[in-house]
Specification:
By secondary structure, the protein is α+β, with helices and mostly antiparallel strands. It has eleven helices and 14 strands. The strands form four sheets. Strands 4-3-7-6-5 form a five-stranded antiparallel β-sheet, covered by helices on one side. A five-stranded mixed β-sheet has the order 9-11-12-14-13, with helices on one face. Strands 1-2 form a two-stranded antiparallel sheet. Helix 5 packs antiparallel against helix 6, helix 7 crosses helix 9 and helix 9 packs antiparallel against helix 11. The chain is rod-shaped. Bound molecules: adenosine-5'-triphosphate and magnesium ion.
Length: 461
């Protein structure tokens, strides 16, 4: 079955169903005809039985036949089509009389058959339908048998012809239907061949090809449309991947060029100890930045595609936030930023993956600090309501221009308005990815010049 084409398979399935259906119809027709033919024979037999029963007279246990000779001669002396045969027997099976058309033959009394029941038998190699009726005396005692039979030849011919017609037409109809079904199936699945051809043309370097949509909006239309949408997504992903690599290399090149330049200038001639120290410190800062970039890229690639197995554990939110604030204490002091925390109740616990959760808070707080003015204020509020924890981090820094708001969650996107503030534009992409992994809803409100608020809605389980 493996190399059986789809179109042949459709045709074959169709044919099997049709064969069962036609077979059922044919058998039903045959049985109905056979039933009605036997019904007619039975009626004929019954009529004869009724007529001849009246001609029988029983006197002192002896059977006498009244006026039977005339009708015997008139009605039963032919052996034409479907003749009726009559025979009277006494209780011992001896012949009393019989219709002339029986000639030398005899109807046999079959003791295994019940009285008045029609059955099939044979008479001189001819097929007959017969009935046996008991002849009773005045006391109801059986004194003989009336046997009536009718030839079945005519009806057998009808049934045989019907059988032949059905046996010949059955395979002929099926063969014709198979080819018709195969042709129709072939036409209906033509778009599949187009899908195969287009798919064959599509490679990693040629993702622009699309499957032409069929005219009818049927399942094949949906299939083609779905594959086209899938191709759109793959194309976008590959484009994104390409631009990600080019952005990443670009981000590496700048600090590396700065490092190279600084070190080259430094070794050109001997310098003062202070100058060495200053340049080396500058280089260490650049290397830190590069480290940060490598960290962010690693996080993004690791958590980008597959769903990492999360390791949820109970954490105390206040403690986590305090640790992150401590981590940024240098920059907070440098900018003299005032941090207000309002965590209600103080001992809120949360079951979550600690690494992902602290990375989210870390990145949001790092932005709040980085984009705050000197002497700025950052407010951190945590609240608990309806099985959710609401966390809000608000700064009164430079804010985000309207034109950038939509794109700040994109990788490498940075607002062009603050070239002096360093960054790679990856922090919020990581936040977005981690929020979706932890089912956290994130909202960002910002007004240029006024400040930015990030709100998180964290499910407690
Ligand atoms: N609190 C904020 N105030 C003002 N602008 C912000 C704030 N948070 C984010 N932005 C804007 O969104 C951009 C993207 O932020 P994101 O954290 O992704 O990158 P980054 O901070 O520039 O670099 P890094 O990769 O080091 O985090 C920033 O460049 C900045 O323009
Ligand atoms: Mg950032």
């Amino acid at each position: 079955m493996q190399n059986f084409s789809f179109r042949n398979r459709i045709a074959l399935n169709y044919i099997i169903t049709t064969a069962l259906l036609i077979g059922f119809v044919f058998v039903t027709i045959y049985l109905v005809v056979e039933f009605s033919v036997s019904g007619h024979l039975n009626e004929d037999l019954q009529r004869e039985v009724d007529r001849h029963s009246q001609e029988v007279e029983v006197k002192d246990g002896k059977i006498a036949l009244k006026r039977h000779k005339e009708w015997m001669e008139r009605e039963h002396n032919t052996v034409g089509v479907d003749p009726v045969f009559i025979e009277f027997l006494d209780i011992d099976g001896n012949l009393i009389d019989k219709s002339p058309n029986l000639k030398e033959s005899h109807l046999l009394y079959d003791s295994t058959q019940k009285d008045n029941v029609f059955f099939n038998g044979e008479l001189a190699e001819k097929r007959i339908r017969q009935v046996q009726v008991p002849i009773l005396d005045e006391d109801g005692k059986r004194v003989g048998h009336l046997l009536v039979a009718v030839a079945r030849e005519g009806s057998e011919v009808v049934l045989e012809t019907l059988r032949h017609i059905m046996l010949i037409t059955f395979p002929v109809i099926l063969i014709i239907l198979f080819f018709v079904a195969r042709f129709i199936a072939g036409r209906s699945i033509k778009p599949i061949n187009e899908i195969i051809n287009t798919s064959n043309k599509i490679t990693r370097d040629n993702l622009t090809e699309r499957i032409p949509l069929p005219h009818n909006k049927d399942e094949l239309y949906i299939l083609s449309d779905t594959i086209n949408n899938l191709l759109d997504r793959i194309e976008k992903t590959i484009e994104r991947e390409k631009s990600f690599t080019s952005y990443a290399s670009h981000e590496f090149r700048t600090p590396l060029a700065v490092l190279k330049g600084t070190l080259e200038v430094l070794i050109r001639k001997p310098r003062q100890q202070e100058e060495y120290e200053e340049k080396v410190r500058y280089c260490v800062k650049e290397i830190d930045r590069l480290n940060h970039l490598v960290d962010e890229l690693l996080i993004l690639t690791r958590y980008e595609n597959q769903k990492q197995s999360l390791k949820p554990e109970e954490i105390k939110i206040k403690q986590t936030i305090d640790e992150i604030i401590k981590f940024f204490s240098d920059s907070i002091q440098q900018k003299n930023i005032h941090i207000k925390t309002e965590i209600l109740p103080e001992n809120i616990f949360l079951k979550t993956d600690i690494y992902l959760f602290s990375t989210i808070i870390n990145n949001i707080l790092s932005n709040a600090i980085k984009y705050s003015h000197q002497d700025g204020v950052i407010e951190i509020k945590v609240d608990e309501k309806d099985k959710y924890i609401f966390c809000e981090i608000k700064d009164n820094g430079i804010g985000i221009p309207e034109k950038d708001k939509e794109k700040i969650f994109d990788k490498f996107y940075r607002s062009t308005d603050h070239a002096d503030i360093k960054g790679f534009g990856l922090g919020l992409s990581i936040v977005k990815r981690f929020c979706s992994l932890l089912n956290i809803q994130i909202e960002l409100f910002s007004k240029e010049g006024d400040g930015t608020t990030v709100k998180l809605k964290i499910p407690q389980s």
